[in-house]
């Protein structure tokens, strides 16, 4: 292995270890020493690649954003209605929160540290911007009623995803299966409600 390859491998191990710790323990409980130990790297090796914990947090969010952008890029290869893309993005987010520590760490950092420093909400805002784009496309394409405000529809999606992640991570509720499956059930309820016939005026009177 060349020196450059070893350096890249060490950096990757540090990012993976940082993401795991940040996702599991949160920002405050994660230390530079802990990251180095978890990665099996010396403290000097850690500081060769990263000057501070915040710099590592930035890199974790950049990696998580790459996961998001790759998903959006794959969606573009197959034409789909905007609401379908929105549902797929939401389910993908829930899947990543279960399986990808980079995304899980980014979401947790936003929840715990976003009010302290905007650097911790980079991934969350990128995801929010994509939700906004899909909702706007759905409205423009006539997939949502003309009276549905963009901000309200967007907020509904965000609150559903963020709220589900929060109540599950805090163990307030236990999901039926993984987060993606649970969110899928919520989307099916919405789809069924959209298909249900609307009561006519005076019905049941």
In a nutshell, what does this entry contain?
The chain is mainly alpha-helical.
Overview of the molecule:
The protein has 205 residues and is an all-alpha fold. It has a domain at 57-195: Orthogonal Bundle (Tetracycline Repressor, domain 2). Helices cover 72% and strands 0% of the residues. The protein has nine helices and no strands. The chain has helices at 3-25, 32-39, 43-49, 53-75, 82-99, 101-113, 122-140, 150-169, 179-195. Helix 1 packs across helix 2 (32-39), helix 4 crosses helix 6 and helix 4 (53-75) packs parallel to helix 7. The longest helix is centred in the first third of the chain and has 23 residues, at 3-25. It is elongated. Residues 192-196 have low confidence and may be disordered. GO terms for molecular function: DNA-binding transcription factor activity; transcription cis-regulatory region binding. Residues 31-50 bind DNA. Keywords: DNA-binding, Transcription, Transcription regulation.
Number of H/I helices: 9
Topology, number of strands: 0
Low-confidence stretches: 192-196
The gyration radius over C-alpha positions equals: 20 Å
Main β sheet profile:
none
| Percentage beta strand | under 5%
Shape, per Cα inertia axes:
elongated
CATH class of the domain at 57-195: Mainly Alpha
Q: Encode the helix/strand succession as letters.
A: HHHHHHHHH
Structural class: mainly alpha
**Mean of pLDDT:** 85
Proportion of residues in helical segments:
over 70%
* Measured distance between first and last alpha carbons: 80 Å
User: Can you tell me the CATH architecture of the domain at 57-195?
Assistant: Orthogonal Bundle
CATH topology of the domain at 57-195, anyone?
A: Tetracycline Repressor, domain 2
GO molecular function: DNA-binding transcription factor activity; transcription cis-regulatory region binding
Protein name: ScbR family autoregulator-binding transcription factor
Keywords: DNA-binding, Transcription, Transcription regulation
InterPro entries: ArpA-like (IPR047923), DNA-bd_HTH_TetR-type_CS (IPR023772), Homeodomain-like_sf (IPR009057), HTH-type_TetR-like_transc_reg (IPR050109), HTH_TetR (IPR001647), Tet_transcr_reg_TetR-rel_C_sf (IPR036271)
